[in-house]
């Protein structure tokens, strides 16, 4: 239920179309996901997000698969099912096995539990935290 | 601002005290965090959470450090500062470097952004997602 | 996937039907959105929400368009896509241009980022905040 | 309860110190908030966030005060009290009156209500939304 | 870290002071919580919230204690520790026992888990839900 | 939009199939909801969640209907519409009347409001809370 129409290649402004083409080149696919086509109404924002995503998700001290796991976790808590879906797919493309996926879900579920217990119990910071 | 008092070793019921001692043994520390001392009012819940945490956070298809990163991510989105603090400390004990920490934060921040953009744009699932 | 059926004009209790008619009159439309038709199972709550919405969203120190932008922002963070959609439409009816919409999204995205960074870093209140 | 120490001017790396000085110059104040001092552990991220904040919050189709109101709304829903405080202060510096502040809070509260009612009722998208 | 000062009885406008006095009378206590003193900057909002709270939390098809349990649950998920604290206290005044409190926390924790699992798994509505 | 396929009885591993059969027996229905069929990819997690749900939701100091109300409240705030739907149905099976449902929604909505007001006002803990 879009609040904006998804822009086709032809409807996108040149600056946005350039980003679509870069996505195709970098991801080695002809597909440009709906997210980018919706964001294309603001070509400057589209370009900024695309650039930042490449920087942030590149191999670094953390490997790309680990970064996708974190992305899925955040998207799950925020309830963004589109994002959960697209980043789970990305994680699979980067090596996520069913066994890893099960463990990811178990950790997310565990954290959701203890986050709520801490808040409901009003647990105060341990002295050694403040050091 | 606890909704329950933190139980000392002496105040805890025997079943809860046994969990405290197991935490000390398994974590090789004399410290039992405030979280466990608050949860100790319900010894069955305390035992269940402690057992499950050990299972979920053990080395598996995902390594323990990766699991802590996911835990910090979920805790951040849920706004649980106690949990963020304790799991960041745990991550450091399992090998988190400042460089990794910066990348973790950058991924969390990126995901928060795109999760919101997807929701605000009302992006619908791509056809290829449904396959 | 409603948890209650949407009530038609005929199915709604008289008190609820009166609210439907007032919505039509005030909004100068024949449409009564699904939200109101779902809420109509509790005519007192329907009447209370409708009255309060009119008070809160009326022109005041903040203009109606600004109020809709705030509404979209809250709805985005809460992940309510129905609400995002209906309030984005309302914002457009009150003067939202595509340029404004892009800026609204950019601010929401920025805030999501820095909110998470603050929590993950455990930033403590500055002294000058407490004054 | 920081997960990282706040960096003083002397402790910050040159790239980070340069951002501190730019904040001072642009905001015409000697104060560099704790947020920036915590983020300074990752000078590249600090620079990126500072640059983006200036772009996003600048006068545009939406004025700076309106942008701060949106920022406060997002921060409220995310439960980031540090952010609520600092952006409410920024809003006041940009012209927020007590009357406007009351209206902002009333809209946020209203949206929180209806967001939850929509979700609890499972309200489905109106046909006219899909057009 | 208030964004507004807490108003004393003397500082509050007459309309707000009247609400303070009504709170004292209805709750049979001399204490007026900080929440009301902060809200008092907007006497109309204060009056509206106080009136609605009394209606919503009164005995009805659900008893007052059950209503406080729901209030604590919502406040926990929203991470509002002030609210968790004040409504847990209210629940205790209405009959909450330690055993009930433990069960409340266990249900909240369970729901947090399964909510996240559903989102991460992208579980689609069962056919029989749509009936 | 599942991130995993829903497993039929035949596709599920024996340990998962045993859980399906136990669900049928305990709930006296032939239906195994999609949630369990998605979770079945991790038979150990499926078994653990099923076991815990039965313990947590059993009659205790709180009755089963009250527990479902709490579950619906948490699911609403987390925006999990699947969970809201399935637990509202469970609540109805345990005695939820339309009148109770309306009151549940009114309490959730009230709490969402005041949670946000507290955060936006930065209300600090009352002295008597700390006692």
Automatic annotation (TrEMBL), chains A, B, C, D, E, F:
Transmembrane segments: none
Highest taxon listed in the record's lineage: Bacteria
Molecular function GO terms recorded: peroxiredoxin activity
Residue intervals of the Carboxymuconolactone decarboxylase-like domain: 50-123
Pfam families named among the record's database cross-references: CMD
Organism: Rubellimicrobium rubrum
Name this protein carries in UniProt: Carboxymuconolactone decarboxylase family protein
InterPro entries with a match to the protein in the record: AhpD-like, AhpD_core, CMD-like
